[in-house]
Specification:
380 residues; 59% helix; alpha/beta; two-stranded antiparallel sheet; single chain; de novo design (two linked rop proteins)
Length: 380
Protein backbone atom coordinates (compact mmCIF):
# COMPACT_ATOMS: atom_id res chain seq x y z
CA UNK A 1 0.00 0.00 0.00
CA UNK A 2 2.84 2.33 0.85
CA UNK A 3 4.39 1.67 -2.55
CA UNK A 4 1.08 2.47 -4.27
CA UNK A 5 0.85 5.83 -2.51
CA UNK A 6 4.49 6.54 -3.31
CA UNK A 7 3.94 5.73 -6.99
CA UNK A 8 0.79 7.90 -7.07
CA UNK A 9 2.73 10.76 -5.45
CA UNK A 10 5.47 10.54 -8.08
CA UNK A 11 2.89 10.58 -10.89
CA UNK A 12 1.13 13.62 -9.41
CA UNK A 13 4.47 15.34 -8.93
CA UNK A 14 5.29 14.70 -12.58
CA UNK A 15 1.94 16.02 -13.73
CA UNK A 16 2.09 19.08 -11.51
CA UNK A 17 5.68 20.14 -12.16
CA UNK A 18 7.25 18.47 -15.18
CA UNK A 19 4.36 18.87 -17.61
CA UNK A 20 3.72 22.57 -16.89
CA UNK A 21 7.43 23.18 -17.21
CA UNK A 22 7.44 21.36 -20.54
CA UNK A 23 4.51 23.43 -21.76
CA UNK A 24 6.34 26.59 -20.74
CA UNK A 25 9.44 25.41 -22.57
CA UNK A 26 7.39 25.04 -25.75
CA UNK A 27 6.99 28.80 -25.87
CA UNK A 28 9.75 29.08 -28.42
CA UNK A 29 11.68 32.27 -29.25
CA UNK A 30 10.85 34.09 -32.47
CA UNK A 31 12.96 36.24 -34.80
CA UNK A 32 10.97 39.02 -36.51
CA UNK A 33 12.15 41.12 -39.45
CA UNK A 34 11.01 43.55 -42.15
CA UNK A 35 11.88 43.20 -45.81
CA UNK A 36 11.45 46.27 -48.00
CA UNK A 37 11.11 45.28 -51.64
CA UNK A 38 9.89 46.46 -55.04
CA UNK A 39 7.90 44.21 -57.40
CA UNK A 40 10.02 45.42 -60.34
CA UNK A 41 13.37 44.73 -58.64
CA UNK A 42 15.13 41.55 -59.92
CA UNK A 43 17.31 41.37 -56.80
CA UNK A 44 14.15 41.42 -54.68
CA UNK A 45 12.74 38.53 -56.75
CA UNK A 46 15.84 36.46 -56.00
CA UNK A 47 15.63 37.10 -52.26
CA UNK A 48 11.89 36.45 -52.09
CA UNK A 49 11.83 33.41 -54.37
CA UNK A 50 15.15 31.70 -53.63
CA UNK A 51 16.63 32.87 -50.32
CA UNK A 52 13.81 33.44 -47.83
CA UNK A 53 11.42 30.48 -48.46
CA UNK A 54 13.99 27.83 -47.37
CA UNK A 55 14.61 29.77 -44.15
CA UNK A 56 10.89 30.06 -43.47
CA UNK A 57 10.45 26.34 -44.13
CA UNK A 58 13.34 25.53 -41.78
CA UNK A 59 12.33 27.72 -38.84
CA UNK A 60 8.56 27.79 -39.30
CA UNK A 61 6.76 29.96 -36.77
CA UNK A 62 10.08 30.93 -35.19
CA UNK A 63 10.76 33.24 -38.14
CA UNK A 64 8.32 35.99 -39.07
CA UNK A 65 8.99 38.42 -41.92
CA UNK A 66 6.76 41.28 -43.06
CA UNK A 67 7.13 42.17 -46.73
CA UNK A 68 6.75 45.91 -47.37
CA UNK A 69 6.28 47.15 -50.94
CA UNK A 70 8.14 50.48 -51.21
CA UNK A 71 6.34 51.41 -54.44
CA UNK A 72 3.19 52.13 -52.42
CA UNK A 73 2.72 55.38 -50.50
CA UNK A 74 2.45 53.57 -47.17
CA UNK A 75 5.45 51.35 -47.86
CA UNK A 76 7.60 54.31 -48.85
CA UNK A 77 6.46 56.18 -45.74
CA UNK A 78 7.52 53.27 -43.53
CA UNK A 79 10.84 52.93 -45.39
CA UNK A 80 11.62 56.62 -44.83
CA UNK A 81 10.85 56.17 -41.13
CA UNK A 82 13.22 53.20 -41.04
CA UNK A 83 15.89 55.21 -42.86
CA UNK A 84 15.81 57.84 -40.12
CA UNK A 85 15.53 55.45 -37.18
CA UNK A 86 18.19 52.84 -37.94
CA UNK A 87 19.57 54.97 -39.75
CA UNK A 88 20.14 53.86 -43.35
CA UNK A 89 23.17 55.63 -44.87
CA UNK A 90 22.84 57.16 -48.32
CA UNK A 91 25.18 54.61 -49.90
CA UNK A 92 22.94 51.75 -48.71
CA UNK A 93 19.59 53.21 -49.77
CA UNK A 94 17.80 50.69 -51.93
CA UNK A 95 15.99 47.37 -51.99
CA UNK A 96 15.89 44.60 -51.05
CA UNK A 97 16.55 45.88 -47.54
CA UNK A 98 16.08 43.58 -44.55
CA UNK A 99 15.78 45.09 -41.07
CA UNK A 100 16.15 42.67 -38.16
CA UNK A 101 16.45 44.27 -34.74
CA UNK A 102 18.90 47.10 -35.21
CA UNK A 103 20.72 45.42 -38.10
CA UNK A 104 20.32 46.42 -41.74
CA UNK A 105 21.08 44.01 -44.60
CA UNK A 106 20.91 45.28 -48.17
CA UNK A 107 21.12 43.38 -51.45
CA UNK A 108 20.72 39.82 -52.72
CA UNK A 109 24.22 38.93 -51.54
CA UNK A 110 24.37 40.34 -48.01
CA UNK A 111 20.91 39.09 -47.01
CA UNK A 112 21.47 35.35 -47.75
CA UNK A 113 25.04 35.50 -46.40
CA UNK A 114 24.31 37.10 -43.02
CA UNK A 115 20.63 36.54 -42.26
CA UNK A 116 20.87 32.80 -41.39
CA UNK A 117 23.57 33.50 -38.81
CA UNK A 118 21.55 36.37 -37.31
CA UNK A 119 18.55 34.04 -37.01
CA UNK A 120 20.58 31.42 -35.13
CA UNK A 121 22.10 34.01 -32.80
CA UNK A 122 18.70 35.62 -32.22
CA UNK A 123 16.98 32.34 -31.36
CA UNK A 124 19.81 31.39 -29.02
CA UNK A 125 19.46 34.77 -27.27
CA UNK A 126 15.70 34.39 -26.77
CA UNK A 127 14.41 35.93 -30.00
CA UNK A 128 14.47 39.30 -31.78
CA UNK A 129 11.44 41.57 -31.65
CA UNK A 130 10.19 43.85 -34.41
CA UNK A 131 12.51 46.81 -35.07
CA UNK A 132 11.60 50.07 -33.33
CA UNK A 133 10.37 51.97 -36.40
CA UNK A 134 7.74 54.70 -36.02
CA UNK A 135 4.46 53.56 -37.56
CA UNK A 136 5.32 49.86 -37.46
CA UNK A 137 3.11 49.26 -34.40
CA UNK A 138 0.15 50.45 -36.46
CA UNK A 139 1.04 48.00 -39.24
CA UNK A 140 1.40 45.11 -36.80
CA UNK A 141 -2.02 45.86 -35.29
CA UNK A 142 -3.58 45.88 -38.76
CA UNK A 143 -1.94 42.55 -39.59
CA UNK A 144 -3.19 41.03 -36.34
CA UNK A 145 -6.68 42.37 -37.01
CA UNK A 146 -6.63 40.92 -40.52
CA UNK A 147 -5.48 37.52 -39.26
CA UNK A 148 -8.18 37.52 -36.58
CA UNK A 149 -10.80 38.38 -39.22
CA UNK A 150 -9.56 35.60 -41.51
CA UNK A 151 -10.11 33.06 -38.73
CA UNK A 152 -13.79 34.07 -38.59
CA UNK A 153 -15.79 32.83 -41.62
CA UNK A 154 -18.19 35.78 -41.57
CA UNK A 155 -15.36 38.25 -41.35
CA UNK A 156 -13.50 36.49 -44.12
CA UNK A 157 -16.39 37.02 -46.49
CA UNK A 158 -16.82 40.71 -45.61
CA UNK A 159 -13.48 42.21 -44.50
CA UNK A 160 -13.59 45.39 -42.48
CA UNK A 161 -12.87 48.67 -44.25
CA UNK A 162 -9.96 49.52 -41.99
CA UNK A 163 -8.13 46.22 -42.52
CA UNK A 164 -5.44 46.16 -45.23
CA UNK A 165 -5.53 43.33 -47.75
CA UNK A 166 -2.60 41.16 -48.75
CA UNK A 167 -0.74 42.17 -51.87
CA UNK A 168 0.68 39.90 -54.53
CA UNK A 169 4.36 39.36 -53.76
CA UNK A 170 6.92 37.32 -55.71
CA UNK A 171 7.21 34.57 -53.08
CA UNK A 172 7.56 30.83 -53.54
CA UNK A 173 4.84 28.80 -55.26
CA UNK A 174 3.64 27.35 -51.97
CA UNK A 175 4.15 30.06 -49.35
CA UNK A 176 3.35 29.20 -45.73
CA UNK A 177 -0.20 29.88 -44.59
CA UNK A 178 0.78 31.69 -41.38
CA UNK A 179 2.41 35.08 -40.93
CA UNK A 180 5.96 33.81 -41.34
CA UNK A 181 6.36 35.37 -44.78
CA UNK A 182 3.57 37.90 -45.00
CA UNK A 183 3.06 40.53 -47.72
CA UNK A 184 1.38 43.60 -46.19
CA UNK A 185 -0.44 46.43 -47.91
CA UNK A 186 0.68 49.35 -45.75
CA UNK A 187 -1.62 52.33 -46.05
CA UNK A 188 -0.19 55.79 -45.80
CA UNK A 189 -1.50 58.11 -43.10
CA UNK A 190 -2.69 60.44 -45.86
CA UNK A 191 -4.87 57.63 -47.23
CA UNK A 192 -6.73 57.26 -43.93
CA UNK A 193 -9.87 59.10 -42.91
CA UNK A 194 -9.82 61.45 -39.93
CA UNK A 195 -11.70 58.93 -37.79
CA UNK A 196 -9.13 56.24 -38.63
CA UNK A 197 -6.27 58.55 -37.65
CA UNK A 198 -7.94 59.34 -34.35
CA UNK A 199 -8.49 55.63 -33.74
CA UNK A 200 -4.75 54.91 -34.04
CA UNK A 201 -4.26 56.29 -30.51
CA UNK A 202 -7.63 57.02 -28.86
CA UNK A 203 -6.18 58.06 -25.50
CA UNK A 204 -3.54 60.33 -27.04
CA UNK A 205 -6.05 61.82 -29.48
CA UNK A 206 -8.44 62.60 -26.62
CA UNK A 207 -5.66 64.39 -24.70
CA UNK A 208 -4.68 66.40 -27.78
CA UNK A 209 -8.25 67.40 -28.61
CA UNK A 210 -8.99 68.50 -25.03
CA UNK A 211 -5.73 70.45 -24.98
CA UNK A 212 -6.59 72.08 -28.32
CA UNK A 213 -10.04 73.15 -27.07
CA UNK A 214 -8.54 74.68 -23.92
CA UNK A 215 -5.88 76.50 -25.96
CA UNK A 216 -8.44 77.96 -28.37
CA UNK A 217 -10.59 79.07 -25.44
CA UNK A 218 -7.58 80.69 -23.77
CA UNK A 219 -6.62 82.48 -27.00
CA UNK A 220 -10.14 83.92 -27.36
CA UNK A 221 -10.15 85.02 -23.70
CA UNK A 222 -6.69 86.61 -23.98
CA UNK A 223 -7.60 88.50 -27.15
CA UNK A 224 -10.77 89.88 -25.54
CA UNK A 225 -8.82 90.80 -22.41
CA UNK A 226 -6.15 92.52 -24.51
CA UNK A 227 -8.72 94.60 -26.43
CA UNK A 228 -10.67 95.51 -23.28
CA UNK A 229 -7.73 96.52 -21.08
CA UNK A 230 -5.13 97.56 -23.68
CA UNK A 231 -2.68 95.48 -21.62
CA UNK A 232 -3.07 97.78 -18.61
CA UNK A 233 -2.82 94.88 -16.19
CA UNK A 234 -2.96 94.79 -12.42
CA UNK A 235 0.04 93.99 -10.26
CA UNK A 236 0.32 90.27 -9.60
CA UNK A 237 1.26 88.32 -6.49
CA UNK A 238 4.86 87.88 -5.34
CA UNK A 239 5.07 84.25 -6.47
CA UNK A 240 4.64 85.47 -10.06
CA UNK A 241 8.16 86.93 -9.83
CA UNK A 242 9.63 83.48 -10.37
CA UNK A 243 6.92 81.24 -11.81
CA UNK A 244 7.28 82.74 -15.31
CA UNK A 245 11.07 82.28 -15.56
CA UNK A 246 10.73 78.81 -13.99
CA UNK A 247 8.20 77.74 -16.62
CA UNK A 248 10.40 79.27 -19.31
CA UNK A 249 13.38 77.22 -18.16
CA UNK A 250 11.31 74.02 -18.11
CA UNK A 251 10.07 74.88 -21.61
CA UNK A 252 13.68 75.38 -22.75
CA UNK A 253 14.52 71.88 -21.51
CA UNK A 254 11.61 70.30 -23.37
CA UNK A 255 12.34 72.25 -26.56
CA UNK A 256 16.06 71.45 -26.36
CA UNK A 257 15.30 67.73 -26.12
CA UNK A 258 12.94 67.90 -29.10
CA UNK A 259 15.58 69.80 -31.07
CA UNK A 260 18.11 67.09 -30.27
CA UNK A 261 15.74 64.36 -31.46
CA UNK A 262 14.79 66.22 -34.65
CA UNK A 263 18.36 67.11 -35.66
CA UNK A 264 20.11 63.84 -34.76
CA UNK A 265 17.36 61.34 -35.61
CA UNK A 266 17.74 59.79 -32.15
CA UNK A 267 14.88 57.74 -30.75
CA UNK A 268 12.77 59.83 -28.38
CA UNK A 269 11.83 58.56 -24.93
CA UNK A 270 8.06 58.11 -25.09
CA UNK A 271 5.57 57.27 -22.40
CA UNK A 272 2.66 54.80 -22.51
CA UNK A 273 0.53 57.28 -24.48
CA UNK A 274 1.40 58.58 -27.93
CA UNK A 275 4.20 57.96 -30.43
CA UNK A 276 6.74 60.76 -30.12
CA UNK A 277 9.03 59.31 -32.78
CA UNK A 278 6.29 59.21 -35.42
CA UNK A 279 5.64 62.90 -34.79
CA UNK A 280 9.29 63.91 -34.70
CA UNK A 281 10.06 62.05 -37.93
CA UNK A 282 7.09 63.47 -39.83
CA UNK A 283 7.50 66.27 -42.37
CA UNK A 284 5.84 68.67 -39.91
CA UNK A 285 8.81 68.41 -37.53
CA UNK A 286 10.70 70.77 -39.87
CA UNK A 287 9.34 74.25 -40.57
CA UNK A 288 9.71 75.03 -44.30
CA UNK A 289 11.72 71.81 -44.49
CA UNK A 290 14.82 73.40 -42.89
CA UNK A 291 14.05 74.71 -39.38
CA UNK A 292 13.38 72.13 -36.63
CA UNK A 293 10.16 73.02 -34.80
CA UNK A 294 11.89 72.20 -31.51
CA UNK A 295 14.57 74.80 -32.25
CA UNK A 296 11.88 77.40 -32.94
CA UNK A 297 10.33 76.58 -29.58
CA UNK A 298 13.69 76.83 -27.86
CA UNK A 299 14.28 80.29 -29.31
CA UNK A 300 10.78 81.28 -28.23
CA UNK A 301 11.35 80.25 -24.62
CA UNK A 302 14.71 82.05 -24.56
CA UNK A 303 12.97 85.20 -25.85
CA UNK A 304 10.28 84.87 -23.17
CA UNK A 305 12.89 84.56 -20.43
CA UNK A 306 14.89 87.50 -21.78
CA UNK A 307 11.82 89.74 -22.03
CA UNK A 308 10.74 88.79 -18.51
CA UNK A 309 14.18 89.83 -17.20
CA UNK A 310 14.04 93.06 -19.23
CA UNK A 311 10.58 93.95 -17.95
CA UNK A 312 11.59 93.26 -14.38
CA UNK A 313 15.07 94.76 -14.21
CA UNK A 314 15.27 97.16 -17.18
CA UNK A 315 14.90 100.98 -17.03
CA UNK A 316 11.27 101.91 -16.39
CA UNK A 317 11.12 104.55 -19.13
CA UNK A 318 12.14 101.93 -21.72
CA UNK A 319 10.29 98.90 -20.40
CA UNK A 320 6.99 100.77 -20.43
CA UNK A 321 7.27 101.17 -24.22
CA UNK A 322 8.13 97.48 -24.78
CA UNK A 323 5.71 95.96 -22.27
CA UNK A 324 3.52 94.56 -25.07
CA UNK A 325 6.32 92.36 -26.47
CA UNK A 326 6.18 89.63 -23.82
CA UNK A 327 2.43 88.90 -24.04
CA UNK A 328 2.58 89.24 -27.84
CA UNK A 329 5.32 86.61 -28.20
CA UNK A 330 3.56 84.26 -25.78
CA UNK A 331 0.28 84.73 -27.65
CA UNK A 332 2.01 83.82 -30.93
CA UNK A 333 3.61 80.83 -29.18
CA UNK A 334 0.20 79.52 -28.14
CA UNK A 335 -1.21 80.05 -31.66
CA UNK A 336 1.65 78.04 -33.16
CA UNK A 337 1.38 75.37 -30.45
CA UNK A 338 -2.36 75.06 -31.15
CA UNK A 339 -1.57 74.55 -34.85
CA UNK A 340 0.90 71.77 -34.03
CA UNK A 341 -1.54 70.22 -31.55
CA UNK A 342 -4.19 70.13 -34.29
CA UNK A 343 -1.81 68.39 -36.69
CA UNK A 344 -0.95 65.52 -34.36
CA UNK A 345 -4.33 63.72 -34.05
CA UNK A 346 -6.00 64.96 -37.25
CA UNK A 347 -3.14 64.88 -39.79
CA UNK A 348 -0.10 62.97 -38.45
CA UNK A 349 -2.12 60.32 -36.62
CA UNK A 350 0.25 60.27 -33.64
CA UNK A 351 0.68 62.23 -30.42
CA UNK A 352 3.91 63.54 -28.88
CA UNK A 353 3.60 64.05 -25.13
CA UNK A 354 6.73 66.23 -25.16
CA UNK A 355 4.90 68.54 -27.57
CA UNK A 356 1.80 68.41 -25.36
CA UNK A 357 3.94 69.44 -22.39
CA UNK A 358 5.27 72.45 -24.29
CA UNK A 359 1.72 73.39 -25.31
CA UNK A 360 0.56 73.28 -21.67
CA UNK A 361 3.51 75.42 -20.56
CA UNK A 362 2.76 78.03 -23.24
CA UNK A 363 -0.94 78.10 -22.29
CA UNK A 364 -0.14 78.63 -18.61
CA UNK A 365 2.31 81.42 -19.51
CA UNK A 366 -0.41 83.06 -21.61
CA UNK A 367 -2.81 83.12 -18.68
CA UNK A 368 -0.20 84.44 -16.26
CA UNK A 369 1.05 87.25 -18.48
CA UNK A 370 -2.44 88.43 -19.44
CA UNK A 371 -4.00 88.05 -16.01
CA UNK A 372 -1.22 89.81 -14.11
CA UNK A 373 1.60 92.13 -14.92
CA UNK A 374 5.18 91.31 -13.92
CA UNK A 375 6.08 93.01 -10.61
CA UNK A 376 9.14 95.19 -11.03
CA UNK A 377 12.06 95.09 -8.64
CA UNK A 378 11.99 98.18 -6.46
CA UNK A 379 14.81 100.58 -7.28
CA UNK A 380 16.94 101.71 -4.41
Amino acid sequence: MRRVFLSLFIVLLFLGIVLPFSAFAQDEPVVRALLFYSPTCPHCHKVLQDDLPPLVQKYGDQLQILLIDVTTAGGQELYQAAAKTIPIPDDKRGVPALVVGGTLLVGDKEIPERFPGIIEQGLAAGGIDWPAIPGLDRVIKEVEARQAAEKTPASAETPSAGTPSATTAPVSENPPQDASLNPVDVRSISEMSVSERLALDPAGSAIAIITLILMIGMLVWALAYWVRTNLTLTVGPSWLNWIIPLLSIIGMGVAFYLTFVETTGAEAVCGPVGDCNAVQQSSYAMLFGILPVGLLGLLGYIAIFALWAWQRYGPMEKTERTGWLLPAIIYFGVVFSAYLTFLEPFVIGAICMWCMTSAWIMTILLFLTFRWTIPRQEKR
